[in-house]
């Protein structure tokens, strides 16, 4: 809306909104804020509504002031009252040929439970909503049937049913298209009227024009001001409103009145801590979020991004003040903000290393860079290492888990601070094997950038458990659905079905916010009396907080967690920072404004004095970032001592920075030290830090439920669990050790149905025809998934209503022997 207001100052008064109902309301709400702030006045902006506006004329409810004077275009359609009554009589199980009705009913039931809605006994769970598209669906089927009837009458004349002449005609489809396009069909929404396609293939319905305005000087409502059916028919004047009253729409100008080119503000892209000896570590770090433009930055990432950046400043101060590390040398930093965009990371690092960076005069020479530190997921790190590996530049990746970086020939100079995802997944499998759990469910994220939580992690899990005879009862993937609560309700319902068949263990390859939604869905299921405490034994990685928030739904949970300890000295440093003294960090004011929700001089008042008052929680990625920088610094320290002995500064032999770069890998890799979080840092043969995973278990601790450590997994010594400390519920609800909780298939019929999982999400619905005369239909029954080829589990209500309208129209046609005698039309609907 800020851009709309800016465009208004350049002459643009009319805004055409091709938006959904939700997006339209957001636009109007935002406009209201600008009206309140007097940034714009009534009448400055005229809204023209298309898209979903035409179906929902009540879209302005509660936003009348913001919408006053708007113009709306709407297709003239009516209601098919008989179908509305038919829809509202439907109940679960009443329509077995529709595989999705029960799914929608369950979805609505779960939503009602979540929102604490009280429904009367006569109120349907799935309510009918008037949609233009529903009427259009019915009309489309009727129009197709009319075309078939017209063609049958021409070719078959007095023969009944589908005559041989028609069935065997070589140009049947071509003739059928012509007859559908030219035939008249009855309008079920306006009995007595007919429908026909025009020459351009568009229905001959009228477009109505409405003006949202004051009627009789006070009440606000829609006034039909015109219609369009080949030409515009003006019925009344259109008006908008200024603070002084009505303005005829003809008096509103919307033309460019000045140069419309605008310079875009560019935020800081890089930061440098200078080195008097010209010895630098370059860093690529995602301090901000990405935007739709991959080369511009979005909002600050206050935890992962900003904390890691500030931890680098603290770490380089610590290194430079330590007389035992690089004595007489002040190590410098060159930090590039990737904004978590692979395109920006590739562009900035490439331009810097090739000397073509736009701000190169303010940057040290790339020849002075001895090593590189990069943070982010595989997509961010890949373009960076593709640039640094050919240069023989030692690069430390602080957070990547992708196993493909274990190719030490291709990535010979890459060191990784994290264990790769395939090692962590092997740890999951070891836990399953320890408890003899042979039948498990999996929930994972589709399209995740993480190689552990996304499809890549799931495929690796499948590969590993297949080697040990473990069967996946059901696998559920979660995308970026708008209605995540409904998605999780459906997933939990399916997990419960498999739990009844014996799959007690559920592996969660999910980030924390998705686990929150999942456990919330389990809570709703428990409130409905369909699940009890301890039904599921969750297995997750690294995250404890969601389980702590849902103690009754998390009992027995097991969490593998890396031993990344907090750095107390950094916490003390960070919480003492303030906006007045921390002037070297160009993004600190942005962080301060985010934390205290202030702007400008208001951030300097007494209410916003320090960070100690906000409850600082150190991000778990900070130790890896700090230890990654120390890895390179200690490697440089080894080289300094190798070339210069115990002297201070860089001797002549060490001033050849390219030689230092070439030799940095081995001393960096061979250095063993205790990380600043207390964990040992030691690189193995695959060039990653060999670590230990703690196994946490959620159970009673005194009068509360909390996590306790019950085991650990060490790459050298394997899995060690004290099962006597574990607790779970057996099939009879008795509290026992997890060693006595079984996750094996106990339903032979279920276990033998390998195709059952596919049947839970049928990709089509078929209405059979008596003579194989079938109408093919494609429509979005479910909301979209994360790529072109997948669906989410949330049923799209308006489209689902259209699906039922389609079935209804076929029933009406097939029930009328005068339309297509002895012919029953069928339908194959592909979602």
TrEMBL record:
GO molecular function: G protein-coupled receptor activity
Limits of the Receptor ligand binding region domain: 311-697
Record membrane topology: Multi-pass membrane protein
Keyword Membrane: yes
Membrane-spanning segments: none
UniProt keyword terms in alphabetical order: Glycoprotein, Membrane, Receptor, Transmembrane, Transmembrane helix
Subcellular compartments: Membrane
Pfam families per record: ANF_receptor
Any one of the GO CC terms: membrane
Protein's name in the database: Metabotropic glutamate receptor 1
């Amino acid at each position: 809306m800020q851009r709309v207001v800016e465009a208004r100052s350049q002459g643009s008064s009319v805004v055409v909104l091709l938006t959904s109902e939700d997006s339209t309301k957001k636009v109007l709400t935002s406009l209201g804020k600008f009206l309140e702030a007097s940034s714009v006045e009534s009448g400055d902006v005229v809204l023209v509504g298309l898209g979903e506006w035409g179906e929902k004329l009540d879209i302005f409810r509660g936003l009348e002031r913001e919408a006053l004077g708007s113009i709306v275009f709407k297709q003239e359609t009516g209601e098919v009252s008989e179908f509305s009554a038919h829809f509202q009589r439907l109940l679960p199980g009443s329509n077995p040929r529709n595989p999705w009705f029960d799914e929608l009913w369950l979805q609505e039931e779960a939503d009602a439970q979540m929102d604490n809605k009280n429904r009367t006994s006569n109120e349907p769970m799935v309510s009918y909503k008037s949609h233009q598209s529903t009427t259009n669906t019915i009309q489309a089927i009727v129009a197709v049937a009319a075309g078939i009837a017209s063609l049958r009458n021409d070719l078959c004349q007095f023969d009944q049913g589908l005559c041989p002449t028609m069935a065997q005609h070589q140009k049947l489809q071509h003739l059928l298209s012509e007859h559908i396009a030219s035939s008249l069909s009855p309008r079920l929404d306006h009995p007595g009227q007919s429908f026909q396609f025009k020459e351009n293939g568009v229905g001959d319905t009228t477009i109505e024009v409405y003006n949202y305005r004051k009627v009789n000087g006070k009440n606000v409502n829609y006034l039909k001001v015109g219609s369009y059916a080949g030409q515009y028919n003006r019925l009344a004047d259109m008006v908008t409103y200024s603070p002084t009253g009505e303005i005829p729409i003809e008096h509103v100008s919307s033309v460019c009145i000045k140069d419309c080119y605008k310079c875009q503000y560019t935020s800081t892209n890089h930061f440098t801590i200078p080195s008097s000896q010209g010895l630098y570590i370059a860093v690529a770090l995602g301090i901000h979020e990405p935007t739709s433009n991959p080369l511009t930055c979005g909002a600050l990432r206050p935890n992962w991004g900003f904390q890691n950046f500030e931890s680098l400043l603290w770490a380089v101060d610590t290194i430079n003040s330590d007389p035992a590390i690089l004595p007489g040398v002040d190590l410098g930093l060159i930090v590039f903000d990737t904004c978590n965009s692979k395109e920006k990371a590739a562009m900035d690092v490439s331009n810097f290393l090739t000397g073509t960076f736009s701000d190169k005069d303010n940057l040290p020479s790339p020849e002075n860079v001895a090593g590189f530190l990069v943070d982010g997921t595989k997509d961010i790190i890949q373009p960076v290492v593709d640039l640094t590996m050919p240069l023989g530049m030692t690069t430390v990746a602080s957070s990547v888990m992708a196993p493909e970086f274990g190719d030490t020939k291709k990535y010979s100079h890459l060191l990784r601070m994290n264990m790769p995802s395939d090692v962590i997944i092997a740890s999951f499998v070891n836990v399953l094997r320890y408890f003899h759990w042979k039948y498990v469910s999996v929930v994972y994220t589709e399209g995740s950038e993480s190689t552990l939580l996304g499809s890549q992690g799931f495929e690796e899990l499948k590969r590993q458990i297949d080697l040990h005879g473990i069967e996946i009862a059901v696998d559920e993937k979660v995308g970026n659905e708008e209605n995540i609560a409904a998605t999780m309700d459906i997933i939990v319902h399916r997990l419960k079905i498999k739990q009844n068949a014996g799959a007690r263990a559920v592996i969660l390859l999910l980030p924390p916010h998705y686990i929150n939604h999942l456990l919330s869905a389990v809570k709703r299921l428990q409130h409905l009396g369909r699940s009890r405490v301890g039904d599921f034994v969750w297995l997750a990685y690294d995250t404890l907080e969601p389980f702590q928030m849902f103690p009754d739904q998390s009992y027995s949970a097991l969490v593998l967690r890396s031993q990344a300890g907090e750095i107390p000295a950094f916490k003390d440093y960070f919480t003492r920072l303030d906006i007045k003294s921390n002037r070297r960090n160009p993004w600190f004011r942005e962080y301060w404004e985010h934390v205290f929700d202030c702007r400008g001089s208001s951030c300097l008042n007494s209410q916003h004095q320090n960070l100690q008052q906000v409850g600082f929680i150190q991000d778990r990625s900070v130790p890896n970032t700090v230890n990654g920088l120390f890895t390179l610094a200690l490697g440089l320290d080894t080289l300094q001592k190798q070339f210069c002995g115990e002297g201070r500064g860089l001797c002549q032999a060490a001033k050849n920075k390219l030689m230092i770069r070439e030799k940095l890998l081995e001393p960096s890799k061979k250095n063993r030290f205790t990380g600043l979080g207390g964990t040992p840092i030691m690189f193995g043969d695959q060039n990653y830090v060999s670590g230990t995973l703690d196994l946490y278990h959620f159970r009673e601790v005194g009068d509360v439920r909390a996590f306790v450590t019950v085991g650990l997994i060490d790459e050298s010594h394997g899995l060690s669990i004290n099962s006597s400390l574990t607790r779970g519920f057996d099939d009879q609800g008795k509290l026992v050790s997890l060693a006595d909780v079984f996750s094996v298939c106990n339903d032979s019929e279920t276990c033998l149905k390998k195709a059952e999982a596919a049947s839970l999400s049928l990709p089509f619905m078929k209405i059979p025809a008596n003579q194989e005369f079938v109408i093919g239909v494609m429509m979005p029954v479910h909301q979209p998934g994360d790529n072109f080829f997948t669906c989410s589990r949330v049923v799209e209500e308006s489209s689902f209503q259209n699906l039922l309208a389609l079935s209804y129209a076929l029933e009406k046609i097939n029930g009328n022997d005068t339309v297509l005698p002895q012919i029953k039309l069928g339908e194959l609907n592909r979602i």
